[in-house]
Amino acid sequence: MALSINRDSGWRWGQFIGFDLYWSLAVVVREPWPLLLLLALHLWFTPSRRGDLALLPLAAAGFGLDLLLWQWGVLAFTAWPLWLLGLWVGFVWTLPHGLGWLAHWHPARVALLGAVGGPFAYLVGARLGGVWLPLGLWTSGALLALIWALLLPLLMVLIRRWLSLFDPKEVTR
């Protein structure tokens, strides 16, 4: 069976790879303006603009979680991290597109990916100077692993349900 790349799969691959570049820009530059431009481009090209906009409350909740972790001393920033809100928007918009295949995984596998991938992103972010981990590498990593083992499967369920309200065709992919 030959692999065919249609417009939809091209969008998903581009979105998946694009988020890695977007994440790097967010963590290195730590300014909201370049992120806003890229988010606007996403909205221009997305096949599900209405559904993506409906996910903004989930991005705000993720941003709120990181702010709580900052307040509790798990994370630290040199200044108010408004860029982090843009990072959360980009991440939440990546879940149904570039990471949409996670919806077909068993929740335990998604939890394992969250437990590894979530802390990894923060640890790399710390190496790049975007965030500090006041509790140290191991304690912070363990706390973030626990949080992300719960958070990623929850986000996948919420996104699936959320999109079924706003953009039912997106859920069937």
TrEMBL record:
Q: Does the keyword Membrane apply?
A: yes
InterPro entries named in the record? DUF2878 (IPR021306)
Pfam families (alphabetical)? DUF2878 (PF11086)
Q: Which UniProt keywords apply?
A: Membrane, Transmembrane, Transmembrane helix
TM stretches of this protein? 21-41, 53-74, 80-103, 110-129, 135-159
- Protein's name in the database: DUF2878 domain-containing protein
Q: Which organism is it from?
A: Pseudaeromonas paramecii
At the highest ranks, the source species' classification is: Bacteria, Pseudomonadati, Pseudomonadota, Gammaproteobacteria, Aeromonadales
